[in-house]
Amino acid sequence: MHTKSLRLKHRSQSGSSLLAALGVLALTSMVIGAALYEARDRYRTCHQSLRWSQAAHAAEAGVELALMSAQQDSWVADGWPAAPGSPGGAAETKSFPLSDGGIGAEVSVDKIDMSGVEWLRIRSVGVADLSGGAVVGAEPQDVMLRKLSLRQERSSGSSVGAMPRATRVLEVLARPRTKSPYLRPILTDQKFSMSGGEVDSFDSDDPAKSTAGLYDVAKRQSNGEVGINDTVGTSDFGNAFIYGNASYSGAAPTNMTNVQGTVSSSFNDTVDPVTTPTWTTFNATPTLITSTMTLTGGTKAAPARYKVSSVNLASGKVLTVAPHAAGAESYVEVWVTGNFTTSGSGYIEQQPGVHVTYHIAGDVTVKRASFHNQTNLAATNVLKVISPAVGVNQKVNISGSGAMIGVVDAPGAAVTASGNGSVSGAIIGKSLNVSGGGAFHYDEALSRLAGTEIIPGYQVASIVEAVR
Amino acid sequence: MTALLRFWISLTYTGLNTTSYATRQNDQMRVLDYLKRDIRRASAVEIYNGATLVTDTNTFGGELRLTIPDYYSDSREEDNAIGAKATNVPDDSSGEVAYGTALTVSYSASGGAAVRTEGGTARTLGNAAGVFALSFKNETSGAIRCRVLFDQPMGGSSTRKLRRQVDTLCVPRFEFRN
């Protein structure tokens, strides 16, 4: 009797242990199952994120491939149906398989009219196939961000079949390239002469080739080319150090011992005349700049314009050119119908962010130190000396020590530069006579300025991503 | 029995913490994907430390402010894909290409949540439970360093935390214009 009771009790305990073990196993399985379920969702989201990023790279590759055909004008040779036609015409399209795993780009290219100029518009759809089925991401925010095409192509509404995909869409606008008017530090139509001094280059856009945008001799570059169109006289380099090429026409110049680059003949680069402005709307005052005053700029789309009979800043006189708003990029144009002169301690205070273009009809007599260009970029301080009528002599005299940051574009003037100061920028003159050992530091950023002469190729002006 | 119970509780916390970590990691990935996308398509990038604009390459700021072309002509949030997708016509009269009036999009952490604000409307990208911290820095290369950190208390422990910091460098596409 006692033995039977013990046996029953033992059986009862065995049953409880089994139930407990099963319970723990079930709960453990639930925990592990939930973790695995979560892990699967998260893994899928990781995969979708990766493919979505790869689709962006594919879209960018599609843009690059289209641009390559555009730069070389090799549309048909590159497999496009045709070169893009005039604005309003149908876009040319091409598919680019880029990698295994369904990564590719669908690219369409057409032309649009932008301010009377035909620009290229490239639309590139980057595609990357998704594995793991047509299942959305774990969170609504993931869905909103990545907008995967799981059953239908989002852009066209067509079925994606058995393979869902991630897509990214880029729209790029590219304008035709134009030739910068300032491709070298010195360009003359007639005689060039220099005694001592040096010509070299830097790049205000590149920290490796400038310091804080300024010329730094330790980062000197060798694109200080002197170009002389002269076919009549004999130019004289005066053994100046030219860190760049010397290109000429006609008789070989003398004293070229220190030209560090290549010397070549048969040079010919058309020097475009500077024309008189055609604008008729400008600020009523001032009409003359001879005393201390301030000119205030405007926006790039609506620059502040002033027309004065002359500029003459004698000792103690300061012309301040200020932005229309503190810290803003600001634009000023000054049309001087007579002479432009600075002397003594008179100077121009060009405040940060201000871009000034002077259109000068008369002679120019300035000191290098009279230009306080606080924007520190040559492209922001341009003296355009309007080409005179045939037979009229025009002079540009730059003198003194100090550093001028700017461009002198005087194709009709006899330019003289005396003193041991420097010009960081570029000079175009009818002729140029340099004395006193002055230096010219060409800012290579000027070569990237837009001009008016269209040359082959395109320049990317805008890149946007269509995120819907 | 006690040992079994403790084992099970421990296993439960492990499961919960694993799930939390995976969730936060997905949040973090989403925030980084948003940042990468928006920085790439921005036309201007600014970093702020409070109200101060960060201009150097040493200081981290807590807010990233982006100027983004207004590609779509309606007033819906850019990411809202429900409805028409009519676009603004590009215009270059200012010397730069513009689509409509540019949008301002900012990123910052608020109350532990990673927040994206577009045109003044804020949206949470990363849950506040993650105790997110966002910081940004200008690199000398021109890239923007984005640092996204979550630092969430760990379930079943008063001191341990689920923590992960990711730095990514993003270069706006406008750097590639030539």
Task: Describe what you observe in this structure.
The complex is a heterodimer of chains A (468) and B (178). Chain A has two helices and 27 strands. Chain A has helices at residues 2-72, 140-146, and strands at residues 92-99, 103-114, 117-129, 165-179, 186-188, 192-194, 198-202, 226-228, 241-242, 246-247, 263-264, 293-296, 304-308, 311-313, 318-322, 330-336, 340-342, 347-350, 354-360, 364-367, 371-373, 381-385, 395-399, 403-417, 422-434, 439-443, 453-466. Chain A has an 18-stranded parallel beta sheet that branches. By secondary structure, chain B is α+β, with helices and mostly antiparallel strands. Chain B contains one helix and eleven strands; from the N terminus they run αβββββββββββ. Chain B has one helix at residues 2-41, and strands spanning 44-49, 52-54, 63-68, 90-91, 98-99, 103-110, 113-118, 121-126, 133-138, 144-153, 161-170. A six-stranded antiparallel beta sheet of chain B has the order 2-1-3-6-7-8, with helices on one face. In chain B, strands 9-10-11 form a three-stranded antiparallel beta sheet, covered by helices on one side. A two-stranded antiparallel ribbon of chain B has the order 4-5. The longest helix of chain B has 40 residues, at 2-41. Chain B is elongated. At the A-B interface, helix 1, helix 2, strand 4 and strand 27 of A face helix 1 and strand 8 of B.
Low-pLDDT windows of residues of chain B? none
Shape of chain B: elongated
Pattern of helices and strands of chain A: HEEEHEEEEEEEEEEEEEEEEEEEEEEEE
Going across the major beta sheet of chain B, what is the strand order? 2-1-3-6-7-8
Helix content of chain A: 10-25%
Please give the count of helices of chain B: 1
| Uncertain runs of chain A | none
The tally of strands of chain A reads 27
DSSP strand content of chain A: 35-45%
Structural class of chain A: alpha/beta
Q: Compute the number of strand runs of chain B.
A: 11
Listing every helix as H and every strand as E from the N terminus to the C terminus, the arrangement of chain B reads HEEEEEEEEEEE
Number of helices of chain A: 2
CA-CA gap between termini of chain B:
73 Å
Name the structural class of chain B: alpha+beta
Could you give a short account of the major beta sheet of chain B? Answer: 6 strands, antiparallel
